[in-house]
């Protein structure tokens, strides 16, 4: 096996620390063809940005015959992240106002209230699992409220969504377990009932707005509406949960930076951006060449799959001086933690708000905060986060 093949093999093992492997692949070539994977890997920051903003690069692999086959009938999330314009433009326009920075800013009092409530419960115990007790529930409750999921159903809603997330295969993006299939069936049935109820009696929530949405005189189809609800439920939880988990893990590993933020909470906005760069929730993104293109002197042919290693781009020394150093005052953010271009993360503003409120509360409320047991990383090459992160609070 070639050196590159060995490095890619290490990458696909979802190691605890993938960054040294990213560095070695980038040093080999910033844009390289990997025969064993049948795709290009792009690890340089400049090159990743070029692909994300390229007008002749697609997210719809099915159009070019490069999507994994569906012989096993497994569910694979679809909708907004996996379609090109004009459908992408139409679908995104229906929901983007609900996730704009201006709209999201109005959520701050509720996010602060929920944060205080969850941390008060944890403080009474003196310990918590950051993921199970805080970083997981917080975005789930916020998202459920946006969608209009009643409080009595929110725990069930989160359980279904998290089961689907945990059972999606990192390569095919399919749900691959019986538990995952059942959760998807149950969540679909539940959301179908909610949509039907909103058609009969609209409320002031996102599902009601999508039900009423029209584009060029055309109502959002029932299938698209349901797919959008599923997508928001599945993807909307993961980014914020992992931002909080990865971010607090990084701060605990860098006590000087943690102390700096505790002493000056006004730094939190820049801190969130640096944490997104340093250990991003999403490490890999996929594209396909819609036509023959050239990238960094390499000829990419129409239909070839392009793997964008966002985590490597965020540690590229040509873009970020001393990239392996955490510096919450690093300055202007140019990371690709939320992607770029037309597929820039729809929930970025929500994740930033929740992350800032959550991290500020954790570092200021618990001056003796520390890791209290063995952590468990998720074994996934695309998404980086924790299954468990036990903390002692006092």
UniProtKB/TrEMBL annotation:
Judging by the UniProt lineage, the source's domain of life is Bacteria
Q: Which sequence ranges are marked TM in the entry?
A: none
Q: Which residues form a coiled coil?
A: none
Task: Recall the GO molecular function terms of this protein's record.
Answer: heme binding; iron ion binding; monooxygenase activity; oxidoreductase activity, acting on paired donors, with incorporation or reduction of molecular oxygen
Q: Which PANTHER family match?
A: CYTOCHROME P450 YJIB-RELATED, P450, PUTATIVE (EUROFUNG)-RELATED
| Family indicated by similarity | Belongs to the cytochrome P450 family.
Please identify the protein, giving its name as recorded.
Cytochrome P450
Organism (species): Solihabitans fulvus
**Lineage of the source organism?**
Bacteria, Bacillati, Actinomycetota, Actinomycetes, Pseudonocardiales
């Amino acid at each position: 096996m070639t050196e590159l093949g060995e490095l890619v093999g290490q990458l696909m093992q979802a190691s605890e620390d993938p960054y040294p492997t990213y560095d070695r692949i980038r040093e080999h070539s910033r844009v390289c063809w990997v025969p064993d994977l049948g795709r290009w890997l792009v690890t340089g920051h400049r090159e990743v940005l070029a692909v994300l903003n390229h007008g002749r690069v697609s997210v719809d692999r099915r159009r070019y015959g490069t999507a994994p086959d569906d012989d096993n009938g497994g569910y694979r999330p679809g909708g907004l992240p996996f379609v090109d314009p004009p459908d992408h433009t139409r679908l995104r326009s229906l929901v983007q106002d609900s996730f704009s920075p201006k709209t999201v800013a109005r959520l701050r009092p509720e996010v602060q209230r929920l944060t205080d409530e969850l941390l008060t419960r944890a403080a009474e115990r003196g310990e918590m699992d950051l993921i199970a007790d805080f970083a997981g529930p917080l975005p789930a409750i916020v998202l459920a409220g946006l969608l209009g999921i009643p409080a009595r159903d929110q725990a069930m809603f989160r359980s279904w969504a998290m089961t689907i997330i945990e059972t999606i295969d990192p390569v095919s993006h399919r749900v691959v377990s019986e538990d995952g299939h059942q959760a998807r069936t149950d969540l679909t049935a539940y959301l179908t009932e909610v949509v039907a109820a909103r058609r009969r009696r609209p409320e002031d929530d996102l599902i009601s707005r999508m039900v009423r949405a029209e584009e060029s005189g055309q109502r959002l189809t029932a299938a698209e509406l349901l797919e959008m609800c599923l997508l928001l439920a599945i993807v909307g939880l993961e980014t914020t949960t992992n931002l909080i988990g990865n971010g607090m893990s990084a701060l605990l590993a860098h006590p000087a930076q943690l102390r700096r933020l505790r002493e000056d909470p006004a730094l939190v906005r820049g801190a969130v951006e640096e944490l997104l760069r340093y250990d991003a929730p999403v490490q890999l993104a996929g594209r396909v060449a819609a036509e023959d293109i050239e990238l960094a002197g390499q000829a990419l042919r129409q239909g070839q799959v392009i793997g964008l290693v966002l985590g490597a781009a965020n540690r590229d020394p040509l873009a970020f001086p001393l990239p392996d150093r955490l510096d919450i005052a690093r300055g202007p953010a140019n990371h690709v933690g939320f992607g770029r271009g037309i597929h820039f993360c729809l929930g970025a503003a929500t994740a930033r708000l929740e992350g800032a409120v959550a991290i500020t509360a954790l570092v200021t409320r618990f001056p003796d905060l520390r890791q209290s047991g063995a952590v468990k990383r998720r074994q996934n090459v695309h998404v980086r986060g924790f299954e468990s992160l036990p903390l002692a609070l006092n």
